[in-house]
Amino acid sequence: MTVKLIGFEVSPGVLSVMMTLHELGVPYQIENPASWQALKDEDYITNKHPFGKVPVLCDGDYKITETRAICRYLVSKYQGKNNKTILIPNDVHKAGLVDQYISYECSYYTPPVAKLVVEEVFHKTSNPELVETSQKEIDKVLDVYEKLLNGKEYLNGEFSLADLLHIPFTHFIFSATKHADWWNKKPNVKQWWDRISNRDCWKKCVEKIKF
Amino acid sequence: MTIRLIGYSALYPTLRVIICLKELGLPYELEPPASYQSLKDEDYIANKHPFGKIPVLFDGDFRITESRAICRYLTSKYQGKHNDTILIPNDVHKAGLVDQFISYELSYYDPPLSKLVYQEKFAKKFFNKDPDPEVIKQAREELAKVLDVYEKLLEGKEYLNGEYSLADLVLCPGTNYVYGAGHSDLWDSRPNVKNWWNRLCNRDTNKKSFEEIKSFWENLGK
Fold it and tell me: Which residues form a coiled coil (chain A) (predicted)?
C-alpha cells in the first residue's frame, strides 16, 4: 500500500518529508487538503492532526504527524530497503550527533529563518525592521554553522537527515528573497548550501513546489 | 567511566536529562558550570556547546548536546541494560508515535510553558524583574488550548502513547514548576490531564527529582 502524504507542496515541513521519501526511494501519493482553512475543521483536527497542521503521513492504517517525527519514522522503517542512502547512521554515537544537529536546526536555525520566509515569501509583506533583527540573529547562527562545518562537507561529516531538514526554508530564502548573501558570504556555509541544494532528490522536490 | 552531565538541575532541560538517567538506572556526575555567564565564554563555546547552552553530556569521550537529543541517545544506548524501563518502544510504529508526542511537547506545549516558568520562577529571583501579568495571561490562554488537545489525546489512555515513555518524561520538569507556581488549575480542571499528571508525579524518579529541586529553591531564599 502506498504511503500517503497530506499537505501542500509549498509547506517546508511537507517538502522535508517529500525529500526524505525521495532519498529513501519510497513511492508516495500526495493529498492536498481543501484549503489552509480546512486544517482548522473539526474533521481534520479529529482525524488528521489534533493541532491542525501539515504534514500528516499515512502508511497503510498507521498515521503519524510532525515533520521531524515523520522523517525519523520513515528512516527507521525504510532506510536500506530500497537503496543504500543513509539518513541516520546505524552507529548509536553518530546517530546521536545527527539528532543533536536536528535539534540545532529546530531550536536555533529555523526560528529566525522561518519568521523571515513567512513574512516575505508567504505573506509577501516587506518589513525592514524584521529584516534588520533577522539579519543579526541569522548572522550569529551562521557564524556557529561556519565553525561547525570547518573541515566537513556536511554537519555530521556525511549527508544526513540533519542537513536535509535545513533545505526547504533555506531554499525559499535563496529563491524568493534578497538575503542569500547572508549565507554566501560565509565560505563553509556557502559550499554546504551548494552541496545540499544540488542533490537530485531536492531538485525533484523543487519541481513540485506549488504556491 | 561515569557519565558527566554539565548543567543546573534547577533549569528544566538539565532536569529532563537527569530524570532520563535515573529512569535508565545510569549513574552520573552533575557538574554545574562556574556561572551562568560562563556559558558565553570562548572556552565553553569551543569545547562544550557552540550555542552556549546547557545541558551537555559526556559519555567517556563522546560529547552530545541538546536535552531531547541527549535523552534519545541515552535511551538508544542504555535502554534495557540496567533495568526493564522502556522509554522508546522497540516497535517502529510505536516509537514513531513517541517521537510525534515529543514533537507536540516541543512545538506546542513548551513555548507557553517556558514563558510561565520564566515569569514565575526566574524573572524576580535571577533577573530582578517583576513577573509581567500580560505575558502570564497570554501564556495561560495558549497553554489552556494546548491542554484541551491533550485532554482528548489522553482519552482512554494512561500516558500519551498508552505506556509511559520519553514523550511523557520530557514535559515533567517544566510542568512541575508551573503546576507548583499557582497554575495547577490548568491541569486539575481537565480530568484526563489531571489523572495523567498525578500518575507522573507518583513515579519514583519524578518524586525524587522534584524533591531535590524543591530543596534547591528553599535554600536559595536563605
Answer: none
The answer, for A152 touching chain B at a CB cutoff of 8 Å, is: no
Q: How far is A67 from chain B (nearest CA, A)?
A: 9
Contacts of A64 in chain B (CB under 8 A): 96-97, 100
Chain A residues in contact with B62 (beta carbon < 8 A)? 93, 96
- The upper half-sphere exposure of residue A25, i.e. CA atoms within 13 Å in the direction of its Cβ, equals 9
Domain count, chain A: 2
| CATH hierarchy code of domain B3-78 | 3.40.30.10
Residue of A nearest to B52 (CA): A144
**Residue A88 C-alpha, separation from nearest chain B C-alpha, in angstroms:** 13
> Between residues 140 and 179 of chain B, which touch chain A (CB distance below 8 Å)?
149, 152-153
Q: Which residue of A has its CA nearest to B167?
A: A69
Separation between Cα atoms, residue A101 and residue B55, nearest integer Å:
15
Q: How far is Cα B135 from Cα B143, in angstroms, rounded to an integer?
A: 12
Q: Do A196 and A101 sit in the same domain of this protein?
A: yes
Identify the residue whose cell numbers are 514565575.
Answer: B120
Answer yes or no: is pLDDT of B222 > 60: no
> Is the Cα dihedral B113, B117, B118, B123 positive or negative?
positive
Q: For the domain made up of B92-220, give the CATH fold.
A: Glutathione S-transferase Yfyf (Class Pi); Chain A, domain 2 (1.20.1050)
For B30-37, which contacts have Cβ atoms below 8 Å and span 24 or more sequence positions?
Answer: B30/B5, B31/B4, B31/B5, B31/B6, B31/B7, B32/B6, B32/B7, B32/B8, B33/B6, B33/B7, B33/B8, B36/B8, B36/B126
CB contact under 8 A, B62 and A102: no
Mean pLDDT (chain B) is 95
Last-in-domain residue among A54, A78, A102: A78
Along the 211 residues of chain A, how does pLDDT read in single tens digits?
A: 789 999 999 999 999 999 999 999 999 999 999 999 999 999 999 999 999 999 999 999 999 999 999 999 999 999 999 999 999 999 999 999 999 999 999 999 999 999 999 999 999 999 999 999 999 999 999 999 999 999 999 999 999 999 999 999 999 999 999 999 999 999 999 999 999 999 999 999 999 998 8
pTM over 0.95: yes
